[in-house]
Amino acid sequence: MQFIDLKTQQLRIRDDLDRRLAALLDHGQYILGPEVSEMEKDLAAYAGVDHCVSVASGTDALLLALMALDIGPGDEVITTPFSFIATAEVIGLIGATPVFVDIDPMTFNLDPSLLAAAITERTRAIMPVGLFGLCADMHSINAIAAEHGLPVIEDAAQSFGATLNGRRSCGLSTIGCTSFFPAKPLGCYGDGGACFSNDEGIAVRLRELRNHGQDRAYHHPRLGINGRMDGMQAAVILAKLKIFDEEVEERARIGARYSALLADSECVTPYIPSDYQSVYAQYTLQVDDRDKVREALQKAGVPTAVYYPITLDQQPALRDIARVQGHLDVAHAMAERVMSLPMHPYLDAETQDHIADVVKQAL
């Protein structure tokens, strides 16, 4: 059983994929070629923003967003402790201080009610994460940020394709950042990512920063990085984007079906607030005695995954450079309780029924 089935998806897009890759090999513009330009235009339209700037990875997207806002040593960026290390890693890499506030126990995302207490004169940005495919409460977060004149960077590595009140993830803040890592809802066949913004000045800086800080050949007004996404990965995204809406709908249907199948079991299924649509990057349960449950599923041939068993405030690389605001009791509790089941748009009903039965037996 596949935890994520990329093979079936590839068979579906193979003809278009082969055609696009053949065209790229023919013209030979492998870096910042026509596929990249086409992809950026299509992705910007999809997210409902004016500008998309593709980059080499989701981590680069977050790093470049911070650089574009001139955040650096002495500054603070408020974020969640319940995420992949890239979220806070980039804050530390530019010399700023990650400030962790606790999460909402229902959504696993940053708790907006805790933000105001964490803001100081050194705060330069807020970076919420759309964990497991569900957007953070961007309305509340944006409102608090606006009161304090702060930009918001949406870490949408897992939530690209999700919506909040009909608006798509990556179009909900000052800068939206996503990842095209192969396992993401919209993934390429290597590393890739993108930044999204309606601010033309930010977009110009992002384009310069991703290409060694140059505004024209061999002229570098700012220090940047080699953060360009290559044309082959852009060709893959273009092929996948054609079917992405259908896959998002299937993810929503399969996620809702999981929750219905497990409604009477001894676990907590994902909470999707009204006016939100999750893209279910993962289908994540809360369970007691997680190790025993996972062991039972493994014996039955059902793969599982645990995302973020060690919260970011407890990571050795971050412990001494971060600041914790208040307690992180919810994040610490969730790190011990969450468990993800197989999830992808091609999960058939028979397999899903079997997974749900095994889960209920294990519980």
Could you outline the blueprint of secondary structure elements for this entry?
Elements: H1 6-27, H2 34-47, E1 51-55, H3 58-68, E2 76-79, H4 86-93, E3 97-100, H5 115-118, E4 123-127, H6 138-147, E5 153-155, E6 163-164, E7 167-168, E8 175-179, E9 193-197, H7 200-209, H8 231-261, E10 276-277, E11 283-286, H9 290-299, H10 316-319, E12 323-324, H11 329-337, E13 338-341, H12 349-362
Parallel strand pairs: 2-3, 2-4, 3-12, 5-8
Antiparallel strand pairs: 1-9, 6-7, 6-10, 8-9, 11-13
Helix pairs in contact: 1-8, 2-8, 3-4, 3-7, 9-12
Describe the structure.
- The chain folds into 2 domains: 6-99 and 108-238, Aspartate Aminotransferase, domain 2 (3-Layer(aba) Sandwich); 244-362, Alpha-Beta Complex (Aspartate Aminotransferase, domain 1), CATH 3.90.1150.
- Strand 6 and strand 7 form a beta hairpin.
- Helix 2 runs parallel beside helix 8 (231-261), helix 3 (58-68) crosses helix 4 and helix 3 (58-68) packs across helix 7.
- The longest helix is centred in the last third of the chain and has 31 residues, at 231-261.
- With 363 residues, the chain is α/β, with parallel strands linked by helices.
- It starts with 5 loop residues before the first helix and ends with a helix.
- It is globular.
- It contains 12 helices and 13 strands.
- Helix content is 40%, strand content 13%.
- A 4-stranded mixed sheet has the order 1-9-8-5, sandwiched between helices. Strands 4-2-3-12 form a 4-stranded parallel sheet, with helices on one face. It has a 3-stranded antiparallel sheet with strand order 7-6-10, with no helix packed on it.
